[in-house]
Design goal:
The chain has 59 residues and is mostly helical. It has one domain. Helices cover 71% and strands 0% of the residues. It contains three helices and no strands. The longest helix is centred in the last third of the chain and has 16 residues.
Length: 59
C-alpha cells in the first residue's frame, strides 16, 4: 500500500473512532453535527477509494 493511501485511511479511521467526541466539542460552539458529518464524508471516501491506488504525487 502506498503511503498516501495508508495516511488517508488512517484519517478515515480516526474520524470514525472520534465522531462522538467531534460532535460533542462542536456542540459547545455550534449545532453538534460536526462529527456526524465528517464521519459521513470520510466513510464515503473510504467506500469509493479503498480499492484504488492513491498517492500524493503525480508519479
Amino acid at each position: 500500500m502506498r503511503m498516501g493511501k495508508q495516511f488517508l485511511l488512517r484519517m478515515v479511521k480516526a474520524i470514525q473512532d472520534n465522531k462522538a467526541y467531534l460532535g460533542e466539542i462542536d456542540g459547545l460552539i455550534g449545532d453538534g453535527d460536526h462529527g456526524m458529518n465528517m464521519n459521513k464524508g470520510f466513510s464515503v471516501f473510504e467506500t469509493r477509494f479503498k480499492d484504488k491506488e492513491i498517492t500524493f504525487s503525480e508519479r
